[in-house]
Design goal:
Its main location: membrane. This protein has about 500 residues and is an alpha/beta fold. It has three domains: about 170 residues, no CATH class; about 110 residues, Translation factors (Elongation Factor Tu (Ef-tu), domain 3, Beta Barrel), CATH 2.40.30; about 160 residues, Nucleotide-binding domain of ferredoxin-NADP reductase (FNR) module (Rossmann fold), CATH 3.40.50.80. It contains 17 helices and 14 strands. The strands form three sheets. The chain has a six-stranded antiparallel β-sheet, sandwiched between helices. Helix 2 crosses helix 4 and helix 12 runs parallel beside helix 13. It is elongated, with a radius of gyration of 31 Å.
Length: about 500
Amino acid sequence: MAIITLPVSRSFNVLLNALFGRWSIRALVFYLEKIKVLHLFLGTGLIIVGVIHSIAHFINIINFVDNYDAKFDAINWATGKDDSKLRLLVATPTGFSGCVMLVTLFAIAYFSSRQMRDRFYNSFLASHHLFLVFYGMMFYHPLSNIIKHQTNLKAHPNGCDIIDDHVFRNDSVLQAICSEEPKFSAGDKSAWIWPLMGLSIYILDIIIRYLIAHSDRRKVSTLQSYVLPANGVYLRLRFTSSKRIVISAGQYVLLQCPAISTLEWHPFTVVDVSIHNTVSLTVAVRGDWTQRLYDLVSEKERLKQSGAGHDALGRLQFLLDGPYPSAMTGMLKCKRIVYIGAGVGITPFAGFVRHLLNFNTDRPSRIHLIWIVRKAEMFTWFADELKRLQERFWKQNKPDRFTLKLFLTRNYNVNVIDEYFGDYPTLKARINKGRPNWDEVFLDLTALYAGKSVTVFSCGPKGMTKELKGMCREYRKHACKFTYLHEGFG
């Protein structure tokens, strides 16, 4: 309980990045990649322990009533053999709070399932705020002082209560040993300190993020907003503060649109940062919030084209929180990288490409990109950047520094490809039908980089992530040192 909130305390992760980012980028990237797994692991462990704890207390309730003994009234939860087990379960502070905590855990777990999270994100978000109820009940839970210990063992040692009354009255030695009636106390409680520490860090994180997000330094104005082919939205925002906001390639921000919801913050990778304090985001429709954003931007474009005026719906307002580090920030530190993106999973690489276009850097020395989409139109999102990167390395006489493979998994139509990529012949030539053959991909990499280290980055669905992780583990045996890092917001 003390650390379950740490993985989702973003300010804490920023602090780790500031303290250890320069010291060990690999260790930091590993932590950032695993924080969600850690949070899930701790949450699952909490449910398991909670269920075991509850079952034990259900059994205790039965034993307290069925085995009630008036001699031990001070340590018995029940008031007599005729006491109601249901009363102990739901009408006492310990029983009621325990039931509420158990129901709360199950509700959070249910709405955290991938199916519920993807389809009903608002419910997922709201259910997670039940942790405040859980914490409140947890601090209330021990107030009944059910668990007690004897405080006068010297004056009443173990065994005194099983001595026959007649024997006890006629034995002065026993009377001297068992000179007092047993006394019990719940003792001092200190376990609450540990979860309070984690809760305090989380609340402090919320306060810091709120103050930063609503400060003048993080206020943004909308410069551009338009829809993209294949259900996408492009946003270009400018910080109103004159002080430069430093954002690195691979970092992400949390975005709120008050016109949609004043409670929801959604993470999006920054795809471009300029010296003019502007930041660009590319958003794919993947749920009710992004669908609403798409509808708002589409409606603004429709009204503008109909002559109703650019601000017919008013300029879209956003709040921005961040930036925050991610596993993708390590790309610029690696010598050889393979980036595999599925659909909108290309966005971390897009920010990396624009960094390479804006700055002359020697790392990475070799870059391999594999981009997998369902609709050919999505390739147009970053076609200009990919073309420019190819041309730059060709002019530098380094054509092998960047290799590109594009895969279209559905509706492969030559006419559609010709329509969209007539101006991008080098990209068009790299569009393949179907999915990548991962064995062929990794065999080629193994032959190319035998005995060398290669870092594989990916952003995509869970199935692809699992498969790529297995491939890296398998082909690590073939004298090529593959390191696998994954990013995902799902």
